[in-house]
ABC transporter substrate-binding protein
Amino acid sequence: MRRTSRIIRILRSPDNPTPVPRTRGTVRAVAAVAAGVLALSLTACGGDDDSGDDDKDGGTEGTGTTVTLPKLDGASLEVAAVWTGAEQANFKKVLAEFEKRTGAKVTFVPAQDPIINFLGSKIAGGAPPDVALLPQPGAIKQAVDKGWAKPLGAEATKELAENYSQGWQDIGKVDGKQYGVYYKAANKSLIWYNTQVFENAGASEPKTWDELLTTAQTVYDSGVTPFSVGGAEGWTLTDWFENVYLSQAGPEKYDQLARHEIKWTDPSVKEALTTLAEIWGKKDYVAGGARGALQTDFPNSVTQTFTGGDQPKAGMVYEGDFAQVNIVQAGAEVGTDAKVFPFPAVGDTAPVVSGGDAAVILEDSEAAQALVTFLASPDAAGIQAKLGGYLSPNRNVPNSAYPNAVQQKMAKALIDAGDDFRFDMSDQAPQAFGGTPGKGEWKALQDFLRNPKDVAGTQAKLEADAAAAYGN
Protein backbone atom coordinates (compact mmCIF):
# COMPACT_ATOMS: atom_id res chain seq x y z
CA MET A 1 0.00 0.00 0.00
CA ARG A 2 2.37 2.65 -1.22
CA ARG A 3 -0.36 5.21 -0.84
CA THR A 4 1.06 8.36 -2.32
CA SER A 5 3.29 9.01 -5.18
CA ARG A 6 2.88 12.61 -6.21
CA ILE A 7 3.42 14.90 -3.29
CA ILE A 8 2.38 18.49 -3.11
CA ARG A 9 4.80 20.33 -0.86
CA ILE A 10 3.54 23.53 0.68
CA LEU A 11 4.58 25.62 3.63
CA ARG A 12 2.36 27.27 6.19
CA SER A 13 3.09 29.58 9.08
CA PRO A 14 2.42 27.78 12.35
CA ASP A 15 1.25 30.95 14.07
CA ASN A 16 -0.58 32.74 11.32
CA PRO A 17 -3.30 31.35 9.03
CA THR A 18 -1.79 33.39 6.23
CA PRO A 19 0.64 30.99 4.58
CA VAL A 20 4.25 31.93 3.97
CA PRO A 21 5.55 30.65 0.63
CA ARG A 22 9.27 30.10 0.23
CA THR A 23 9.55 29.52 -3.51
CA ARG A 24 7.82 30.67 -6.66
CA GLY A 25 5.08 28.28 -7.76
CA THR A 26 3.80 27.47 -4.29
CA VAL A 27 1.72 30.57 -3.59
CA ARG A 28 -1.72 29.36 -4.59
CA ALA A 29 -1.12 25.89 -3.19
CA VAL A 30 0.02 27.36 0.11
CA ALA A 31 -3.07 29.48 0.48
CA ALA A 32 -5.51 26.73 -0.33
CA VAL A 33 -3.99 23.80 1.50
CA ALA A 34 -2.98 25.76 4.58
CA ALA A 35 -6.51 27.04 4.99
CA GLY A 36 -7.93 23.56 4.73
CA VAL A 37 -5.42 21.95 7.03
CA LEU A 38 -5.68 24.68 9.65
CA ALA A 39 -9.42 24.12 9.58
CA LEU A 40 -8.77 20.50 10.54
CA SER A 41 -7.78 21.60 13.98
CA LEU A 42 -10.38 19.96 15.12
CA THR A 43 -13.64 21.58 15.34
CA ALA A 44 -13.74 19.79 12.01
CA CYS A 45 -12.65 16.56 13.62
CA GLY A 46 -14.34 16.82 16.96
CA GLY A 47 -17.68 15.21 16.28
CA ASP A 48 -19.31 18.57 15.63
CA ASP A 49 -22.74 18.35 14.00
CA ASP A 50 -21.72 21.05 11.55
CA SER A 51 -19.93 18.46 9.46
CA GLY A 52 -18.99 20.47 6.50
CA ASP A 53 -22.15 22.31 5.40
CA ASP A 54 -20.07 25.40 4.72
CA ASP A 55 -17.76 23.30 2.63
CA LYS A 56 -20.65 21.94 0.59
CA ASP A 57 -21.53 25.49 -0.32
CA GLY A 58 -17.95 26.51 -1.02
CA GLY A 59 -16.62 23.24 -2.43
CA THR A 60 -16.72 21.83 -5.90
CA GLU A 61 -20.01 20.57 -7.25
CA GLY A 62 -20.63 17.71 -9.63
CA THR A 63 -21.12 18.22 -13.33
CA GLY A 64 -24.62 16.75 -13.22
CA THR A 65 -23.70 14.35 -16.01
CA THR A 66 -22.73 10.71 -16.15
CA VAL A 67 -19.75 9.57 -18.17
CA THR A 68 -20.75 7.66 -21.30
CA LEU A 69 -19.27 4.18 -21.50
CA PRO A 70 -19.49 1.57 -24.28
CA LYS A 71 -21.14 -1.83 -23.95
CA LEU A 72 -18.37 -4.36 -23.40
CA ASP A 73 -20.20 -7.66 -22.94
CA GLY A 74 -17.70 -10.50 -23.00
CA ALA A 75 -14.66 -8.29 -22.42
CA SER A 76 -12.37 -9.04 -19.50
CA LEU A 77 -9.77 -6.84 -17.79
CA GLU A 78 -7.13 -7.11 -15.10
CA VAL A 79 -6.24 -4.12 -12.92
CA ALA A 80 -3.12 -4.18 -10.74
CA ALA A 81 -2.39 -1.98 -7.74
CA VAL A 82 -0.38 -2.12 -4.51
CA TRP A 83 -3.53 -1.74 -2.42
CA THR A 84 -4.62 -4.01 0.40
CA GLY A 85 -7.34 -4.32 3.00
CA ALA A 86 -10.21 -1.86 3.00
CA GLU A 87 -8.54 0.31 0.37
CA GLN A 88 -8.55 -2.60 -2.06
CA ALA A 89 -12.09 -3.60 -1.07
CA ASN A 90 -13.40 -0.08 -1.68
CA PHE A 91 -11.70 0.15 -5.07
CA LYS A 92 -13.31 -3.16 -6.03
CA LYS A 93 -16.70 -1.49 -5.50
CA VAL A 94 -15.70 1.10 -8.11
CA LEU A 95 -14.73 -1.69 -10.48
CA ALA A 96 -18.05 -3.42 -9.79
CA GLU A 97 -19.89 -0.30 -10.93
CA PHE A 98 -17.85 -0.30 -14.14
CA GLU A 99 -18.83 -3.94 -14.69
CA LYS A 100 -22.49 -3.09 -14.10
CA ARG A 101 -22.45 -0.25 -16.62
CA THR A 102 -20.46 -1.98 -19.36
CA GLY A 103 -20.91 -5.72 -18.98
CA ALA A 104 -17.15 -6.24 -18.79
CA LYS A 105 -15.53 -8.50 -16.21
CA VAL A 106 -12.77 -6.85 -14.15
CA THR A 107 -10.31 -8.75 -11.94
CA PHE A 108 -8.20 -6.96 -9.35
CA VAL A 109 -4.59 -8.18 -9.25
CA PRO A 110 -2.76 -7.46 -5.96
CA ALA A 111 0.72 -6.14 -6.78
CA GLN A 112 3.85 -5.92 -4.69
CA ASP A 113 6.25 -3.02 -4.21
CA PRO A 114 8.03 -2.00 -6.31
CA ILE A 115 5.19 -2.33 -8.79
CA ILE A 116 7.50 -1.78 -11.79
CA ASN A 117 9.35 -5.00 -10.88
CA PHE A 118 6.03 -6.79 -10.41
CA LEU A 119 4.81 -5.60 -13.80
CA GLY A 120 8.11 -6.56 -15.40
CA SER A 121 7.70 -10.14 -14.26
CA LYS A 122 4.10 -10.20 -15.50
CA ILE A 123 5.11 -8.80 -18.88
CA ALA A 124 8.04 -11.22 -19.17
CA GLY A 125 5.60 -14.05 -18.51
CA GLY A 126 3.26 -12.80 -21.22
CA ALA A 127 0.45 -11.90 -18.81
CA PRO A 128 0.51 -8.14 -18.10
CA PRO A 129 -2.52 -6.56 -16.44
CA ASP A 130 -4.53 -4.28 -18.71
CA VAL A 131 -4.32 -1.31 -16.35
CA ALA A 132 -1.99 -0.57 -13.45
CA LEU A 133 -2.18 2.04 -10.69
CA LEU A 134 1.33 3.42 -10.46
CA PRO A 135 2.29 5.03 -7.16
CA GLN A 136 5.34 7.01 -8.31
CA PRO A 137 5.74 9.53 -11.14
CA GLY A 138 9.04 7.96 -12.07
CA ALA A 139 7.25 4.66 -12.53
CA ILE A 140 5.07 6.15 -15.28
CA LYS A 141 8.16 7.31 -17.14
CA GLN A 142 9.81 3.92 -16.65
CA ALA A 143 6.73 2.20 -18.06
CA VAL A 144 6.80 4.52 -21.06
CA ASP A 145 10.54 4.14 -21.59
CA LYS A 146 10.21 0.35 -21.50
CA GLY A 147 7.43 0.49 -24.08
CA TRP A 148 4.84 -0.89 -21.66
CA ALA A 149 2.52 2.10 -21.20
CA LYS A 150 0.04 3.13 -23.88
CA PRO A 151 -1.21 6.70 -24.39
CA LEU A 152 -4.74 7.62 -23.37
CA GLY A 153 -7.30 7.76 -26.17
CA ALA A 154 -9.52 10.68 -27.07
CA GLU A 155 -12.37 9.84 -24.67
CA ALA A 156 -10.14 9.35 -21.64
CA THR A 157 -8.20 12.52 -22.45
CA LYS A 158 -11.43 14.47 -22.83
CA GLU A 159 -12.76 13.21 -19.50
CA LEU A 160 -9.48 14.07 -17.83
CA ALA A 161 -9.49 17.62 -19.25
CA GLU A 162 -13.05 18.21 -18.05
CA ASN A 163 -12.39 17.10 -14.49
CA TYR A 164 -8.76 17.83 -13.62
CA SER A 165 -6.69 20.98 -13.35
CA GLN A 166 -3.91 21.37 -15.88
CA GLY A 167 -1.34 20.56 -13.23
CA TRP A 168 -2.88 17.17 -12.46
CA GLN A 169 -3.09 16.44 -16.18
CA ASP A 170 0.54 17.41 -16.74
CA ILE A 171 1.96 15.12 -14.09
CA GLY A 172 0.46 12.18 -15.97
CA LYS A 173 2.29 13.14 -19.17
CA VAL A 174 5.58 11.88 -20.57
CA ASP A 175 7.17 13.74 -23.47
CA GLY A 176 3.95 15.68 -23.96
CA LYS A 177 1.69 12.62 -24.27
CA GLN A 178 -0.98 11.76 -21.71
CA TYR A 179 -0.39 8.37 -20.08
CA GLY A 180 -1.73 8.65 -16.55
CA VAL A 181 -4.97 9.53 -14.77
CA TYR A 182 -4.40 10.45 -11.15
CA TYR A 183 -7.31 8.61 -9.61
CA LYS A 184 -6.29 8.92 -5.97
CA ALA A 185 -4.71 11.60 -3.79
CA ALA A 186 -3.76 11.89 -0.12
CA ASN A 187 -2.72 14.37 2.55
CA LYS A 188 0.33 12.97 4.35
CA SER A 189 1.18 15.66 6.88
CA LEU A 190 -1.04 14.46 9.70
CA ILE A 191 -0.59 12.88 13.10
CA TRP A 192 -3.59 10.92 14.39
CA TYR A 193 -4.13 10.44 18.09
CA ASN A 194 -6.26 8.41 20.47
CA THR A 195 -8.50 10.97 22.14
CA GLN A 196 -9.01 8.91 25.30
CA VAL A 197 -5.24 8.65 25.76
CA PHE A 198 -4.85 12.41 25.34
CA GLU A 199 -7.71 13.14 27.73
CA ASN A 200 -6.35 10.76 30.37
CA ALA A 201 -2.86 12.24 30.05
CA GLY A 202 -4.01 15.86 29.87
CA ALA A 203 -2.12 16.18 26.58
CA SER A 204 -2.85 18.84 23.97
CA GLU A 205 -2.37 19.12 20.22
CA PRO A 206 1.11 20.48 19.41
CA LYS A 207 1.91 23.05 16.75
CA THR A 208 5.70 22.84 16.86
CA TRP A 209 8.22 20.01 17.09
CA ASP A 210 9.21 21.02 20.62
CA GLU A 211 5.55 20.96 21.62
CA LEU A 212 5.26 17.50 20.02
CA LEU A 213 8.10 16.26 22.21
CA THR A 214 6.36 17.74 25.26
CA THR A 215 3.09 16.08 24.28
CA ALA A 216 4.90 12.77 23.78
CA GLN A 217 6.44 12.98 27.24
CA THR A 218 3.04 13.77 28.74
CA VAL A 219 1.56 10.69 27.07
CA TYR A 220 4.54 8.59 28.19
CA ASP A 221 4.18 9.78 31.78
CA SER A 222 0.53 8.64 31.72
CA GLY A 223 1.66 5.09 31.02
CA VAL A 224 1.15 4.87 27.25
CA THR A 225 3.89 4.63 24.61
CA PRO A 226 3.71 7.86 22.58
CA PHE A 227 4.20 6.69 18.96
CA SER A 228 3.32 3.82 16.68
CA VAL A 229 5.65 3.53 13.66
CA GLY A 230 5.03 1.27 10.66
CA GLY A 231 8.71 0.65 10.03
CA ALA A 232 8.22 -2.60 8.15
CA GLU A 233 7.38 -0.42 5.13
CA GLY A 234 10.18 1.98 4.27
CA TRP A 235 7.91 4.53 2.60
CA THR A 236 6.45 5.55 5.96
CA LEU A 237 9.96 6.43 7.15
CA THR A 238 10.75 8.50 4.05
CA ASP A 239 7.56 10.44 4.76
CA TRP A 240 8.70 11.15 8.31
CA PHE A 241 12.06 12.37 6.99
CA GLU A 242 10.55 14.50 4.21
CA ASN A 243 8.19 16.35 6.54
CA VAL A 244 10.99 17.11 8.98
CA TYR A 245 13.46 18.04 6.23
CA LEU A 246 11.08 20.32 4.32
CA SER A 247 10.07 22.21 7.44
CA GLN A 248 13.57 22.43 8.88
CA ALA A 249 15.79 22.91 5.82
CA GLY A 250 13.28 24.77 3.63
CA PRO A 251 12.05 24.17 0.10
CA GLU A 252 15.20 25.33 -1.71
CA LYS A 253 17.35 22.74 0.04
CA TYR A 254 14.56 20.20 -0.35
CA ASP A 255 14.49 20.71 -4.11
CA GLN A 256 18.27 20.48 -4.32
CA LEU A 257 18.36 17.23 -2.35
CA ALA A 258 15.51 15.81 -4.43
CA ARG A 259 17.58 16.42 -7.59
CA HIS A 260 20.77 15.24 -5.86
CA GLU A 261 22.31 18.66 -6.42
CA ILE A 262 23.49 18.53 -2.83
CA LYS A 263 24.73 15.36 -1.17
CA TRP A 264 23.06 13.37 1.54
CA THR A 265 26.15 14.13 3.61
CA ASP A 266 25.04 17.79 3.66
CA PRO A 267 24.70 19.28 7.19
CA SER A 268 20.97 19.84 6.55
CA VAL A 269 20.46 16.07 6.31
CA LYS A 270 22.44 15.57 9.52
CA GLU A 271 20.16 18.09 11.24
CA ALA A 272 16.99 16.36 10.04
CA LEU A 273 18.18 12.89 11.05
CA THR A 274 19.27 14.23 14.44
CA THR A 275 15.79 15.69 14.86
CA LEU A 276 14.12 12.41 13.92
CA ALA A 277 16.27 10.64 16.47
CA GLU A 278 14.64 12.73 19.19
CA ILE A 279 11.64 10.44 18.71
CA TRP A 280 13.01 7.31 17.04
CA GLY A 281 15.93 7.09 19.45
CA LYS A 282 14.09 7.98 22.64
CA LYS A 283 13.79 4.94 24.89
CA ASP A 284 10.22 3.59 25.02
CA TYR A 285 8.83 6.31 22.72
CA VAL A 286 8.09 3.87 19.87
CA ALA A 287 5.72 0.94 20.32
CA GLY A 288 7.68 -2.31 20.46
CA GLY A 289 10.95 -0.42 20.25
CA ALA A 290 12.87 -0.33 16.99
CA ARG A 291 12.61 -4.10 16.57
CA GLY A 292 8.86 -4.05 17.01
CA ALA A 293 8.40 -1.08 14.71
CA LEU A 294 10.42 -2.76 11.97
CA GLN A 295 8.03 -5.72 12.16
CA THR A 296 4.92 -3.52 12.08
CA ASP A 297 3.33 -2.74 8.73
CA PHE A 298 1.42 0.45 8.09
CA PRO A 299 -2.14 -0.88 8.68
CA ASN A 300 -1.16 -2.40 12.03
CA SER A 301 0.66 0.75 13.06
CA VAL A 302 -2.71 2.50 12.84
CA THR A 303 -4.98 -0.16 14.31
CA GLN A 304 -2.78 -0.74 17.36
CA THR A 305 -3.16 2.96 18.20
CA PHE A 306 -6.95 2.66 18.38
CA THR A 307 -7.49 -0.74 20.01
CA GLY A 308 -7.02 -1.72 23.62
CA GLY A 309 -9.34 0.81 25.20
CA ASP A 310 -7.48 3.56 27.04
CA GLN A 311 -4.32 1.42 27.10
CA PRO A 312 -3.47 0.96 23.40
CA LYS A 313 0.04 0.12 22.24
CA ALA A 314 0.57 3.79 21.33
CA GLY A 315 -1.13 7.15 21.68
CA MET A 316 -0.23 8.62 18.27
CA VAL A 317 0.52 7.47 14.74
CA TYR A 318 1.86 9.55 11.85
CA GLU A 319 0.45 9.20 8.33
CA GLY A 320 -2.07 10.46 5.83
CA ASP A 321 -5.82 10.83 5.58
CA PHE A 322 -6.03 7.27 4.26
CA ALA A 323 -5.35 6.07 7.82
CA GLN A 324 -9.06 6.65 8.42
CA VAL A 325 -9.80 3.33 6.73
CA ASN A 326 -7.64 1.49 9.25
CA ILE A 327 -9.02 3.54 12.12
CA VAL A 328 -12.53 2.39 11.21
CA GLN A 329 -11.26 -1.20 10.91
CA ALA A 330 -10.03 -0.86 14.48
CA GLY A 331 -13.61 -0.06 15.54
CA ALA A 332 -12.83 3.57 16.32
CA GLU A 333 -14.79 6.61 15.15
CA VAL A 334 -12.99 9.42 13.37
CA GLY A 335 -13.71 12.71 15.10
CA THR A 336 -14.61 11.05 18.38
CA ASP A 337 -12.18 8.25 19.23
CA ALA A 338 -9.56 9.40 16.75
CA LYS A 339 -8.57 12.98 16.02
CA VAL A 340 -5.79 14.54 14.00
CA PHE A 341 -3.45 17.52 13.98
CA PRO A 342 -1.17 18.83 11.22
CA PHE A 343 2.45 17.67 11.26
CA PRO A 344 4.08 20.23 13.58
CA ALA A 345 6.52 22.88 12.42
CA VAL A 346 10.11 21.78 12.91
CA GLY A 347 11.54 25.04 11.60
CA ASP A 348 9.69 28.28 10.97
CA THR A 349 6.99 26.66 8.86
CA ALA A 350 5.00 23.43 8.90
CA PRO A 351 4.82 21.08 5.90
CA VAL A 352 1.68 20.03 4.07
CA VAL A 353 1.98 16.97 1.86
CA SER A 354 -0.36 15.39 -0.67
CA GLY A 355 0.04 12.73 -3.32
CA GLY A 356 -1.63 10.26 -5.63
CA ASP A 357 -1.76 7.09 -7.73
CA ALA A 358 -2.16 7.14 -11.51
CA ALA A 359 -4.04 4.67 -13.71
CA VAL A 360 -1.93 3.68 -16.73
CA ILE A 361 -2.90 1.42 -19.65
CA LEU A 362 -0.53 -1.48 -20.40
CA GLU A 363 -2.71 -3.50 -22.77
CA ASP A 364 -4.52 -1.14 -25.13
CA SER A 365 -8.11 -2.07 -25.91
CA GLU A 366 -11.55 -0.53 -26.02
CA ALA A 367 -12.23 -1.97 -22.55
CA ALA A 368 -8.99 -0.65 -21.03
CA GLN A 369 -9.58 2.82 -22.48
CA ALA A 370 -13.14 2.75 -21.16
CA LEU A 371 -12.00 1.81 -17.68
CA VAL A 372 -9.45 4.63 -17.52
CA THR A 373 -12.11 7.02 -18.88
CA PHE A 374 -14.37 5.90 -16.04
CA LEU A 375 -11.60 6.39 -13.47
CA ALA A 376 -11.12 9.95 -14.77
CA SER A 377 -14.79 10.71 -14.14
CA PRO A 378 -16.49 12.06 -11.00
CA ASP A 379 -18.75 8.99 -11.18
CA ALA A 380 -15.93 6.63 -10.20
CA ALA A 381 -14.24 8.91 -7.69
CA GLY A 382 -17.58 9.75 -6.08
CA ILE A 383 -18.19 6.08 -5.27
CA GLN A 384 -14.94 5.70 -3.37
CA ALA A 385 -15.17 9.16 -1.79
CA LYS A 386 -18.34 8.10 0.03
CA LEU A 387 -16.57 5.07 1.49
CA GLY A 388 -13.92 7.13 3.30
CA GLY A 389 -10.14 6.95 3.48
CA TYR A 390 -9.80 8.43 0.01
CA LEU A 391 -9.31 11.79 -1.68
CA SER A 392 -9.60 12.59 -5.38
CA PRO A 393 -7.88 15.34 -7.38
CA ASN A 394 -10.98 15.31 -9.61
CA ARG A 395 -12.41 18.81 -9.21
CA ASN A 396 -15.94 17.75 -10.15
CA VAL A 397 -16.43 15.33 -7.26
CA PRO A 398 -18.94 17.11 -4.98
CA ASN A 399 -17.35 18.03 -1.69
CA SER A 400 -20.45 16.64 0.01
CA ALA A 401 -19.52 13.17 -1.31
CA TYR A 402 -16.88 12.85 1.40
CA PRO A 403 -18.24 11.21 4.54
CA ASN A 404 -16.97 13.55 7.24
CA ALA A 405 -15.81 17.08 7.86
CA VAL A 406 -12.15 16.05 8.06
CA GLN A 407 -12.13 14.69 4.54
CA GLN A 408 -14.31 17.49 3.21
CA LYS A 409 -11.74 20.03 4.43
CA MET A 410 -8.86 18.03 2.97
CA ALA A 411 -10.60 17.54 -0.36
CA LYS A 412 -11.48 21.20 -0.72
CA ALA A 413 -7.91 22.20 0.14
CA LEU A 414 -6.54 19.78 -2.43
CA ILE A 415 -8.78 21.10 -5.20
CA ASP A 416 -8.18 24.72 -4.24
CA ALA A 417 -4.43 24.13 -4.57
CA GLY A 418 -4.95 24.26 -8.34
CA ASP A 419 -1.90 23.68 -10.51
CA ASP A 420 0.88 24.27 -7.99
CA PHE A 421 2.59 21.03 -7.07
CA ARG A 422 5.79 19.92 -5.41
CA PHE A 423 6.64 16.24 -5.57
CA ASP A 424 7.59 13.78 -2.87
CA MET A 425 11.37 13.53 -2.69
CA SER A 426 11.56 9.74 -2.67
CA ASP A 427 9.15 9.57 -5.60
CA GLN A 428 11.23 11.99 -7.63
CA ALA A 429 14.27 9.80 -7.11
CA PRO A 430 15.21 6.83 -9.27
CA GLN A 431 13.16 3.91 -7.99
CA ALA A 432 16.26 1.97 -6.94
CA PHE A 433 16.92 4.72 -4.41
CA GLY A 434 13.52 6.10 -3.46
CA GLY A 435 11.01 3.32 -4.02
CA THR A 436 12.37 -0.21 -3.56
CA PRO A 437 11.96 -2.34 -0.42
CA GLY A 438 15.28 -3.37 1.06
CA LYS A 439 17.26 -0.84 -0.97
CA GLY A 440 18.27 2.80 -1.06
CA GLU A 441 16.47 5.29 1.11
CA TRP A 442 13.90 2.81 2.40
CA LYS A 443 16.60 0.45 3.71
CA ALA A 444 18.86 3.23 5.02
CA LEU A 445 16.05 4.76 7.07
CA GLN A 446 14.99 1.38 8.40
CA ASP A 447 18.59 0.86 9.51
CA PHE A 448 18.52 4.32 11.05
CA LEU A 449 15.34 3.48 12.95
CA ARG A 450 17.23 0.45 14.26
CA ASN A 451 20.21 2.59 15.28
CA PRO A 452 19.33 6.32 15.48
CA LYS A 453 22.77 7.16 16.91
CA ASP A 454 24.43 6.41 13.58
CA VAL A 455 23.69 9.69 11.84
CA ALA A 456 26.99 9.87 9.96
CA GLY A 457 26.82 6.26 8.83
CA THR A 458 23.25 6.71 7.64
CA GLN A 459 24.25 9.80 5.67
CA ALA A 460 27.16 7.97 4.06
CA LYS A 461 24.94 5.05 3.06
CA LEU A 462 22.25 7.35 1.69
CA GLU A 463 24.81 9.26 -0.36
CA ALA A 464 26.44 6.13 -1.75
CA ASP A 465 23.09 4.68 -2.79
CA ALA A 466 21.89 8.02 -4.22
CA ALA A 467 25.07 8.53 -6.24
CA ALA A 468 24.74 5.06 -7.72
CA ALA A 469 21.05 5.52 -8.55
CA TYR A 470 21.35 9.04 -9.97
CA GLY A 471 24.55 8.24 -11.79
CA ASN A 472 26.45 11.15 -10.27
Remarks:
- Residues 386 and 403 are 5 Å apart (CA to CA).
- The chain has three domains: 1-188+361-428, 189-353, 430-470.
